[in-house]
Every structure is written in C-alpha cells, then in structure tokens.
Design goal:
Blueprint (H helix, E strand, L loop, with lengths): L2 E4 L6 E4 L40 E4 L9 E7 L6 E2 L6 E4 L2 E4 L2 E8 L13 H19 L5 E8 L11 E7 L4 H17 L3 H12 L3 E4 L3 E4 L10 E5 L11 H22 L4 E6 L14 E6 L6 H6 L2 E3 L3 H14 L12 H6 L1
Parallel strand pairs: 2-16, 5-8
Antiparallel strand pairs: 1-2, 3-4, 4-8, 6-7, 8-10, 9-10, 9-14, 11-12, 12-13, 13-15, 14-15
Helix pairs in contact: 1-4, 4-6
C-alpha cells in the first residue's frame, strides 16, 4: 500500500508508492557512448587551457611543480547563471513585482585531466582533491556577500550535463533561496523546541535504527532519507555538528570522498550509468557558526519524471521505499572488491539488516 511520509527537514510530504514501479514504460534510460581518453575539441582537456576563462584555483598534479600539469582546475563559467561581481544585489520593487540584479558567481570545477574519467573510477585521493576544490572556493566566496554558496554536480544529459568532460560547478547566489530558508526555519524551530541540532539527532536516530543506513565511517554516515523524494536518494552527513562544509577538516573531507566514490560506484553497479545530481548543502553565508544546522551532501538519481500530480500538488512520488534502496546499496557496497580505507566500512548492524 502507498504511504505518505513527512520530511522532517522541510515538513513537506512525499508519497512512497512501490506499486508505481510496475507501471508500463515506453522508454528506458539511454546508454551513453563511451568517452574518448581525450577530445581535441574539448575546452577542458589539457592543452586547451586558453579556451577557458583564467583559472581561479588550481591543484597541481605534482605539488613540487605548481606551474606544471594540473590535477584539478577551477575556472569561471563562460555561460554563468549569475553575472560576476562583489557588490550587493539591490532589490527593486514595483507594485507586486520585485527584482534584483543577477550578481553572484558561477565556477566550473574541472575534476580531472582525463576526458573519460569519472568519480567512481577514481581513487579516494582523487575524489578528495575535488572536495578540496569545493572547500577552497566556498571559503573564498562566502565572505563576498550575503547569500549562499552551492557546489553541485550534474551527471548525464538528463541531469543537465552539457559537456562530457568530468566537471562539477559552484554557484554563489546573492540571496538565500526559499527552499533553503525552509530548511533553516525548520531546523531553527527544532533547536528552539529541543535545544539540539535536528540533523545531529536525526543521524543518531538513524544509526540506532540501522534500516536506512548504507555505510558509516568515524566522522560521516551515508543513509537513504526517510522521506526520500527520488528513488535511491542518498545523503552523506557528518556524525558531529558542523554547519558549513567549508569548515570541514581534512579527515572528514577524506571520509566523505571515500563514501561518495563508493556510493556512486554502487549506484552504477546497481542501476547502470544513470543520470544524477548531487549538491552540497551548507549554512548560508554569515551563519557558519550556527548551532541548529548541519551540512550534508545529497545525491539524487534522475530515474523518474514529475508528472501532473507532482506539478499540481508539489508532492513527490517515489516508487522505491528508502529501506529497500538502502538494502540494495549495502549489498552493492559489500560486493565491491576495491580496497577500503580505514574508517569507511559498511556498518555491521546495517549489513545485518540488509
């Protein structure tokens, strides 16, 4: 039987409807063509550095040769969603209509020199290098203006990818979007009522229950949220309070990278090379010391398309119960024969429930 679940972080409702998974589908997911190791027309491949705007951050492949080959580059997006600038975005109101200057920042994180590389194929160090780029740029951008800094990755054309070379993006907005205000308002109310962080309490409760836990390390946890709005939605959350990812220490960053790589590999092993998005959700600029919010990395596979019901009600319909998704992901992770870093093992209690 379908079940309505309320998201504890937004207080919005989601329908968990496993029967919907059996409905007939006319089309299946497209199979992407294998990418070449290098593309002479790709602006992100080595040797084409002049085809991008001047880089704002670089991680050299050889730390002793900063001007040599690179491992990760960050450059301004040539087609930004917000125009670059450090001044405040002043609001202008005419009657019922309000507008603001579209000022902010939009950067591209070129994740690897290899055109055919992907996060599940890398080692933990390579993925941690990408997270280090996020952290460095979040620190640089958050002090420029009020608003929000959002690192995110689109994988596959259906998820918004326009170039096949492995990359992610970072957008700094001059405002805090309504969805984020809702997250912060709910978390603040919980803190006012209980004197504790909702995210820390939630993670502790999920660890105690174990049913939706996918994998654990000393400092971070991977889990499928109780009211997941998409099939196989998975979060990586810190076990101890920290409001902003930009303040994450190296050990937490390394553990997050290890879990992220393994999760994306497990999703690919389980479902194929599906489109997905992930986003790093953090406290807004200026609220990094808040006690009521915690950063988290949200992975959202793109396996369903919203239809009339979702559009009309704003209620997501998820045909895969999170508990079922977690069990499958635990099994896929257990079958992964790659060497595992210390402190990033699948939790024994979660495995037993799988």
């Amino acid at each position: 039987m379908p079940e309505l679940r309320r998201d504890p972080f937004t207080r919005s409702w989601v329908v968990i409807a496993p029967e919907r998974a059996d409905r007939p589908q006319r089309t299946g997911p497209a199979t992407p063509r294998p990418a070449p190791a290098a593309d002479p027309d790709c602006p992100f491949c080595p040797g084409h550095e002049q085809d991008t705007p001047a880089e704002v951050w670089r991680l050299p492949a050889d730390r002793d040769d900063p001007a040599g080959a690179w491992a990760v580059r960050v450059v301004p997006n040539r087609y930004p969603v917000l125009a670059p600038g450090d001044r405040a975005a002043h609001h202008h109101t005419t009657g019922l209509h309000t507008r603001a200057d579209g000022i902010g920042s939009h950067e591209v994180v070129i994740e690897s020199p290899s055109h055919d590389w992907d996060l599940p194929d890398g080692n933990d160090t390579a993925v941690a290098d990408i997270l280090r780029a996020y952290r460095a740029r979040c620190l640089a951008l958050r002090g420029r203006r009020p608003g929000l800094v959002l690192p995110f990755r689109n994988h596959g054309a259906a998820a918004g990818t326009s170039l096949p070379h492995p990359h992610s993006q970072i957008v700094a907005t001059p405002i805090v979007p309504l969805r984020f205000r809702q997250l912060f308002d709910v978390a603040r109310t919980y803190y006012d009522d209980h004197g504790r962080c909702l995210y820390v309490d939630h993670t502790a409760a999920e660890l105690a229950d174990g049913e939706r836990v996918v994998a654990t390390s000393d400092g971070v946890v991977a889990l499928t949220p109780y009211a997941a709005s998409t099939p196989y939605e998975t979060w990586i959350v810190p076990r101890h309070h920290q409001a902003s990812f930009a303040d994450a220490p190296d050990d937490i960053l390394d553990q997050t990278a290890a879990l992220l790589r393994r999760l994306l590999a497990a999703l690919r092993d389980l479902l194929g090379d599906i489109p997905y998005n992930y986003a790093l959700i953090s406290a807004p600029n200026g609220e990094e010391a808040t006690t009521y919010f915690a950063w988290h990395l949200q992975i959202a596979p793109r396996l369903t398309d919203p239809a009339g019901f979702e559009l009309g009600t704003g209620i997501a319909v998820n045909p895969v119960p999170p508990e079922h998704a977690a069990a499958q992901l635990r099994q896929a992770l257990t079958a992964d024969a790659a060497p595992q870093p210390a402190g990033a093992q699948v939790s024994s209690r979660a495995r037993a429930r799988g």
